[in-house]
Specification:
This protein is α+β, with helices and mostly antiparallel strands. It has two domains: about 140 residues, Mago nashi protein (2-Layer Sandwich); about 160 residues, Ankyrin repeat-containing domain (Serine Threonine Protein Phosphatase 5, Tetratricopeptide repeat, Alpha Horseshoe), CATH 1.25.40.20. Helices cover about 35% and strands about 15% of the residues. It has 15 helices and eleven strands. Helix 11 runs parallel beside helix 13. The chain is elongated, with a radius of gyration of 26 Å.
């Protein structure tokens, strides 16, 4: 009977909107030692001694407050490489705000919805992590790593914990777990793209014919799913955009660099310019990573003699033997030189393009 009474009390509290008691039905906070970058284990450079932070011995409970008073914020900064920078804000009523800053699929600010139960469970997980008793900062003396900050507002009170490789200086695993749980309410949708991305954009009345749509398509060309790329094209996204990253790579070049022949084909059919130059002067043909893509681009009118800012034609740029041979067979100038005077033959020797070297020498022998 007592168990039934406790369950009934929890149900009433959930209905009333309390964030204090309703942990019933919430998963435990899972902790792990992992922290990875997008291209493998997270690497960073230590610039000083790693001293463990002393945790306060005084227990400070998470303040009480209704679910409507809850605001949870996760912010992540850039690193020296291509780590995504963004923020995810969750509120007790289920409203959420994502802001993509750098190296994300969808840049910009978007409003979406999550389950209020997810927010309720996060509050319970903040309590389990004893969040108010944590230090306000766990920052190791490192560079090259993204920094995080986690904020909880509840009942008019607010606390933020900063994390810069915090596990190395004594930050509890629970903080990393909280970051992952918050990420689970928007990371894949906006930073990488999943089945919810297009529907979320539609609900925002997003203009799929805009420059912003062209940017998202260019971002997706390199790493988004083919289904997502097809969806964007079907909605009318222009194939003429550039990535929002530092090189401002065109959509076709982004796909070409990753060997995504099918995406290159789709983009060209949708009107992508095969000769669009990136910020460094390179084109999709420079970044073509296999012979199939070279042939697709040349057939679409790609010019094999365009030079980047270092004077490199695609033939002087590629490090793939098959792509190099395809360029030569397409008529690329084998006598071209870089701004510093390096020849195609020297390039083939430097990057061990054995079959290209044989082809070059055989053609020289024919003259």
């Amino acid at each position: 009977m007592e168990r039934v009474r406790l369950i009934a009390t929890a149900v009433v509290c959930c209905i009333a909107g309390s964030a204090n008691i309703c942990a019933a039905g919430c998963p435990p906070l899972l902790t792990s030692n992992h922290r990875t970058a997008e291209n493998g284990p997270l690497a960073y450079t230590v610039t000083g001694p790693l001293k463990k932070s002393e945790r306060s011995r005084r227990h400070i409970p998470v303040p009480e407050g209704s679910l409507d008073s809850v605001r949870i914020l996760l912010e992540r900064s850039e690193c020296e490489g291509s780590c995504p920078s963004y923020s995810i804000e969750l509120r007790g009523d289920g409203s959420a705000i994502y802001t993509g800053k750098a190296f994300v699929l969808v840049p910009g600010r978007y409003i979406y919805e999550v389950s209020p139960q997810n927010v309720r469970c996060l509050v319970a997980q903040f309590r389990a992590a004893d969040f108010w008793s944590l230090n306000s900062s766990y920052e190791a003396p490192v560079i090259d790593s993204p920094a995080y900050s986690v904020t909880l507002e509840i009942g008019g009170a607010k606390k933020t914990v900063a994390d810069n490789v915090g596990r190395a200086v004594g930050m509890p695993k629970a903080v990393t777990a909280l970051e992952d749980e918050i990420d689970g309410n928007g990371l894949n949708r906006w930073v990488y793209g999943d089945s919810e991305t297009l529907p979320s954009l539609r609900r925002e009345h997003f203009d799929f014919h805009s420059d912003d749509a062209a940017t998202i398509l260019a971002n997706a060309a390199g790493s988004g799913s083919e289904e997502f790329v097809l969806g964007l094209l079907a909605e009318g996204a222009p194939a003429t955009g550039r990535q929002s990253y530092f090189r401002q790579t065109g959509a076709a070049a982004a796909a070409a660099s990753e060997g995504r022949s099918s995406i290159v084909r789709l983009l060209l059919a949708a009107g992508a310019d095969p000769n669009l130059q990136n910020a460094d002067g390179s084109t999709a043909l420079h970044w073509a990573s296999n012979a199939d893509i070279v042939q697709l681009l040349v057939k679409a009118g790609a010019n094999p003699e365009i030079k980047d800012e270092q004077g490199l034609t695609p033939l002087l740029f590629t490090r793939d033997d098959d792509a190099s041979i395809a360029l030569i067979e397409a008529g690329a100038d084998i006598t071209a030189k870089t701004n510093s005077g390096a020849t195609v033959e020297q390039h083939a020797i430097e990057y061990k393009l054995a079959r290209t070297l044989d082809l070059l020498r055989s053609r020289q022998g024919e003259k």
